[in-house]
Amino acid sequence: ILWQGRPFLSLVMDYTVTNERIKITSGLLGKAHENVELIRIQDIDHSQTFGERVLKIGDITIRSHDPSHPEIVLRNVQDPSSVYEILRRAVLEARKRHNFSYREEM
Q1: Pick the CATH number of 3-97 from 3.20.20.70, 2.30.29.30, 3.30.565.10, 3.40.50.150
Q2: 26-39 residue pLDDT tens
């Protein structure tokens, strides 16, 4: 596990980043699971409103080639800049391990 967290003030959602995928688990009694393979991630961004900056939280938006989850937003993540860097490095390492290169089409 490279990083694990949960949204600020949330008891029903967990985020986990491994060296192969991002796992999102949600639900209190019943559980739902979403997984996105790191090599399918196309782009990662992070953003913070002024209020979020004060609370040191923010959102991380992940765009992928996964048809079932083309965009995932990790909301209210604590220290989003650090988590963004962890994700960025993990994606680059996963691409290296799998000899995968991403090419943009114009």
Answers
A1: 2.30.29.30
A2: 998 889 999 999 99
